[in-house]
Amino acid sequence: MNVVTVKINGVEYNLKGNEQEEYLHKVAVYVDKKVRSITENNIKLSTASAAILSALNIVDDMFKQKDKYDQLKAKFDDIDKKNKDYEEDIQSFKKQLKHLEEYNGELQSKLKNNTNAQYIEEKEEYINKIMQEMEVLQETAKRYMKENKEIIAQNKQIKFELQSSKYKVLDLNHKLMENQIDLAKEKKKNNVLLRDK
């Protein structure tokens, strides 16, 4: 367990935690900035009041980050579902394309064995129609594959933002816990001062 001495609003505190010393200092600096910001705006506030207002601000930050995290997760889940739908469509198109290619091969084989000119002409028209349909399917498949790549890129970005939001929420939770510890210490200190009077 790490123990570090930090200053918050001019008062030294010993912080204990399993986190790295650098992290504990970072939390203390954040809380100190919040408390100083509040006391600078109203110098008549007691330390306990400043600590409570700081805790409220930190919890507000934490809730906003949590909301942002929830929104990003919902967006990620939606994109992930669309991605799966596109993958299913692509597989379906690939099967259709394979079937049409096989059928086209059969027709071309029959054409080679058929000597009737009219029959050949009709079949050529039919093959041309099938080839056009294949081109449309290939274009559609290309479009879906492009959209799929874009969705995968969006998924990566959203995963990064989700991870970042998780760290921010964890950071804010730590800050809130430290602030509550400071508030408890301050209350205890005030109680001792009141008893001494």
Automatic annotation (TrEMBL):
The keyword Acetylation does not apply. One of its GO terms (cellular component) is cell division site. It holds the Pfam family ZapA. One of its GO terms (biological process) is division septum assembly. Residues 69-154 form a coiled coil. Keywords: Cell cycle, Cell division, Coiled coil, Cytoplasm, Septation. It is found in: Cytoplasm. It comes from the Bacteria. Homodimer. Interacts with FtsZ. Activator of cell division through the inhibition of FtsZ GTPase activity, therefore promoting FtsZ assembly into bundles of protofilaments necessary for the formation of the division Z ring. It is recruited early at mid-cell but it is not essential for cell division. This is Cell division protein ZapA. It comes from Clostridium fermenticellae.
